[in-house]
Prior knowledge:
Residues 901-1011 form the MHD2 domain. The chain is mainly α. Among the domains are: 11-54, no CATH class; 138-169 and 197-330, no CATH class; 553-650; 658-745 and 786-839 and 849-867, Tetracycline Repressor, domain 2 (Orthogonal Bundle), CATH 1.10.357.50; 885-1058, Tetracycline Repressor, domain 2, CATH 1.10.357. Helices cover 60% and strands 1% of the residues. A hairpin with a 2-residue loop joins strand 1 and strand 2. Helix 18 packs parallel to helix 21, helix 28 (653-680) packs antiparallel against helix 29 (695-713) and helix 38 (959-975) packs antiparallel against helix 39. The longest helix is centred in the last third of the chain and has 46 residues, at 792-837. It is rod-shaped and about 175 Å long. The N and C termini lie far apart (139 Å).
Amino acid sequence: LSSAGGRAVDLSRVDLDAVSADYALDCVASGAQFDASEATRRYFDDRRYPIMTSSPSGNSYFLLSRPEGSGSPPKKVAPDIGPEPPAEENSSRARKHSDSFEVAVNIQGASYVLKDLNLANTSPQHAKEMDLLSLGLPRLNAELSDDDLRETAYEVLLASLFVSGKLYFAEEKREKKPKFLKGLRSKTEGSNSAPQMENYYTHHLDLIRVQMEISESMDTLAKRALRRIGSKMVQGQLDVPCISLQLLSSVGKFDFPTERLRVQWQRRQANVLEELLLFSASRECSMSETLRIVLSKLKNTEDWVVSVPDGRIEVLTIIERYNTRLSAAPKKFGLKGETYHWTQSYHFNSRLYEKLLSSVFDMLEDGQLVEEADEILETMKLTWPILGITQKLHDALYAWALFQKFAQTGEILLLKQTDLQIQKLKLHNNVREAELYIDSFVCSVEGFGSNGTLNLVDSALLKINMWCHRQLKNYHLYFSQANCSIFESMLNLVLLTAANLTDDDEEAMLIGTSLGSTPESTLIHILVVRSIQAAYKNALISADGQSKAEFKHPLILLASELKLLVEKECSAFSPVLHKYYPEAGRVALTVFHLLYGQQLELFLEGSDHSESLKEILGASNSFELCIAQKLYSMYGEAAGSSLSNFLKPYMIDRFSSPIILQWLHAQHENVLEWTKRTIEIEDWEPLSVHRKLATSMVEVFRIVEETIDQFFNSSLPLDIVHLRSLLIGITSSLQVYLLHMENQQVSRATLLPVAPVLTRYAESVNPFAKRKLIEPAVREEKVANKLNNLTVPKLCVKLNTLQYIRDQLDTIEEGIKQSWVDVQSAVGLLDYLSCMTSEGATSKSSPSDESIDELFTIFDDVRRTAVNITDTILNFIGTRAVFWDMRDLLLFSLYRTSVESARMEIFIPTIEQVLDQVCDLIVDVLRDRVVLRVFQACMEGFIWVLLDGGPSRAFLETDVNLMKDDLAMLKDLFIAEGQGLPSDVIEKEAKLAQQILDLYVLKADTIIDLLMKASEHMSHHLEPATARRRNVHDVHTLLRVLCHKKDNGASTFLKIQYHLPRSSGL
């Protein structure tokens, strides 16, 4: 650094602690001359304003003006410079809704802005920093920093300890000893170079020194200088000027480690004397001008050092004489130990005591009190005679110190300690003189719409109340479930300090208090209303901003945010507020409901409604249900209250009912169209290995379930008309699907072979003559195409699909009924809200359970159709497997020509393949039914071979045993060692076949006799009988047994009686 003329700067006369480092670095970088006065000015300027960091975004700034007087910032972004984009058709509509929403910020209740600092737009941490208020003590005129006050306060504490005899120092013992003996001095002697403290206060004083950040060197210096302070007491009284004079007279230049420390120390002492004797004292004293002159000499540290000792003594004597004259002035209040400086310097003394009280806070653990806090406070009482502190003043200042530290750290224990301290303060009942003395501690205050002065105690209580009141008026911003305990403690503090304090805006509130309310309930009522209004304004601004990013209407987002606020209110704040004001929860919910209702009313009154009307109504109804549910959970049926007049139901159903019906109609058309499209392309292949049903049905039910979910999740008020429309749409889609499945079926009769012409057995003249085979009937092309899509695997998939329809329909019905219960619950809540408004008016009657059950009978039609189609397919699937897929292998080959050459065991593997295929595809619940139908078809085919097998089949009595073995083999296949069908079911189904085989064992004459008896009541015209309706003793069965029996007697009877041709014919 260089000065004018290029010479190096002499820094010995410069207070380096008061030099701007930035200015010095700028001088070094630019080569400019260093100006000590400019460096000092820059230093103090920098201390007045916060330190700003370089911000690349340019968004960090500091306002020199007061922003709270300028109103809120602009709500809209300035328009871009440049050509405007082309207007779109719906842009004006969207702009209209957006503008109407932004106007809501200024509607009644929502336009409320916290007048102090507009906290709704301020972060909690920043608001706390701004809210850290002062006591309003008169300002200091001398240049005294916080460090100066802290060091002076410590000196006052030391002086009080000496004067009270709680602390003393041993004199230094200096003896001349040879240099070679210096190293042999004992530790005790070596320690005599520093003062000795040998009493109770030693540890506490050392702790206070560390807490107040006083260096050991300055501590030693002050102790040495103040050890005889008692001799300087004026008329037996000690004050701060006496302490400063004692220090100035006892400390020399060489007692300081550095010159800079000496200069700072001397200036501080001079400023203290200037503040107490010149600025704070009465100007009537004739020596004031002389005092100004001598104080200027004292502040000139260079002249003070070089002046002769007599000159310094003279200056100090003049100052001491001036202080003595002031101290001799009459006492104002006649209190014991009262001094002049108690009243004239109360602003300075109070600041010193605040610095002393700060030593109880642990400097290493922010927000914590040291373990010796009580002992430290007891030590502080020794300073009361010097600083003019009474017990009440102590309690007020200590409460203020605790609260300030809480405001900085947020430590709840400090807040609770503040509460306890204020409770102690409230118990004080001082005598009149003491009260008048405290009233002389005048502080300026601003709050609750008025400016004025209060005494220090009332000012501390007011400032604490203002700080807490400001946060509680926006408690949704500052508090949450996590710090709810702080909220409760702060509320206690506000109620404790709220005597004779009223809100200047009480008359302008959205919802006023009821007549006869207590001051406590009125205060909480105001806090709740103001906080809800502030939170609502925040939600308005947030919803408006999010709507532009998420392309949703602001009302939808606002309802969602308000629901979160309601949940937070009821879970975190209302339980606490209810202890002091039982109506707090009702007030909060009513304000939420009213504010949103005002915004919704503005929207609904618009000339046109946006495309998102359905979503807006749903969000609004959901929010209203939330309010109703919370009210009911808090207050139950006890709904009567003066606040009910403010609960105006939104009447969403007036707007939503036609919208729901319109939507349902459109959804039904979409589902029906999709059902027709998906069923037409269905190939009846399994959806997957695990889900063996049609893909189309899964898709249909997926769309149906989506429709149901959207219906019930719309959050709109629903009634029985809407439910009926929903059920009709579901039924229509499923009936269309089932009708298509039914039309794909083919009659079972088309698969049965045509019965051959009856013939009688006769030995062939030509043993090599070829017997006539049974030809299957030729099907129509349309029927043949249908049969190609009615294979056993596809039929299994259809059966699974039909079962899935029935199961899923049951699930859907149960789900709809359960959802309808929730709907009825919502209807009940809305009726509850209406009853509160109409003072017990009867609500609309909800439909009974019987009427709801009648609606669901429409599903029974679908179930019956599904059952009928299932029975049709079950009757068809066995016939398809046996009479169509196995007709060549089983029907037309079994026992042909001879029994021995075409036994059943040849065809068992084919039947097993069919059963394996069925069991792999069919669902468990239908497996036994399908297998039973296959067995019934096998029995029907077996009987067909025995009775309608044609000319190629003739049986001897010896063949019967073989055929019975084949029948047993077939039965065992389906019983599957107990894993298949029950044996009693198998025996029942095989009974007819067994009886027919028993007929073949009988002689021909016996069978003829049975036939003749059966024919007595029948005509000679033979009508065909179905295989499933046969009876072992009917004419048709007996006649066909004779036709297929290798017996000449039977052949002769048939020739004579029925004129049947020989089986060996063409």
